[in-house]
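User: Study the chain.
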Amino acid sequence: MGRITSELAKLSIVFDRLRWEEKELFERAKEEGLEVNLVDAKSMPLDLTSSSVPSSIADLVLQRTISHYRGLYYAAILERWGYRVINSYKSSHLCGNKLLTTLLLSQNGIPTPHTFIAFSRDSALQIMDKMGYPVVIKPITGSWGRMIAKVRDRDEAEALLETREMLPDPQQQIYYVQEYINRPPRDIRSVVVGDRVVATIYRYQPDDDWKTNIARGGKAELLKPDSELEELMLKAAKVVGGEILGIDAMESSNGYVLHEINNNVEFKGASSVSEKNIASEIIKYVKGSVSK
């Protein structure tokens, strides 16, 4: 059982960089009558061996750190102490690892790009040659499109893998290789809150980049999802156990394919075109989750 017993709870927003999103969530929480504070995870060490818990952290926690591992382990510790954390450690773990996300999507019949995992340079090259170029290679953790590469031929593949072999991070020697989807110059982002899709947008890639991330200069356009897309988004959210998610899809020649789920969704771009106040929708869900 959690620590929350009252209908109207205090809320802590845990962050490590105060972005537009966290500021909006803080303001909307005050509007909803929640007693809310901001907790900088970088400045709040946690005593794993103490029986006392930090008084500055409320029983209800909205986890909003940029760092995947910082947020993941913060959630694990707080949940062990009985806090209610959104999103949970389990959901953050599943969404923050592309390998695990792809496994879940595929196993639950949700269309996703054809993907291989390889554990050596030679086997990665063999898979790329077999799949045919171009292919996409990604780190299994990370956001904002960092270290994601479109590999156009064997020479590029060899150069890229040689570089990754030299990196000290062992995860860089786990090669997540995905088919390149010949999509329009855009992808689709849905913000899912609870069991509802509260906003869906097209994200158009900049003229000088094949990636669509708004943080990298992509442009947002409001999209009214059809029933098929909305059903896929909600099904994906359910299989990862997420409560507040950003789910990404592409339009392929065979229909929609879902390729990523973000457990710490940025929504500034979507908010700029959405008919709904996304931050308010999130806070209303968080407030209503007290009894869950």
In short: The domain at 10-94 is CATH 3.40.50.20 (Rossmann fold). The chain is about 35% helix and 25% strand.
